[in-house]
Amino acid sequence: MKFSRKAIIIFFSILMIAGGFIISHISPSASIRTHIFVTGHPVGAFSVTININKTEYNFDKDVLNRENAMIYNIMGNDLYDRRTGNIIVNYKVKRIGFLYFTEGYGDG
User: Fold this and answer.
1) 63-96 burial, b if ≥16 CB within 10 A, otherwise e?
2) I need a labelling partner for 2 at 20 to 30 A (CA). Which of 20, 60, 61, 79 fits?
3) Domain ranges of the chain
């Protein structure tokens, strides 16, 4: 069976997109950096330091354990939310299967 060149290119393009998605969500740190990059802070994505925020985690421990999530904070660069203008400091990272997904947490 002979595949056309166009079908092979489409297959490998889809494979590369899926691989890029998986690689960018394979760890909490990679997920946070991807989120920061996609939300409009490309320089900040590579210049911040990411740490676990145990204080926030202990405060909301019951809810976060149910969601299989952890709170991380970033240091080293002030990143501002484009909609509200608040400084973004904390991120909630949920683990779903073997991938991690990030969203902002709190108001700064």
Assistant:
1) ebeeeebbbbbbeeeebeeeeeeeebbbbbbbee
2) 20
3) 5-104
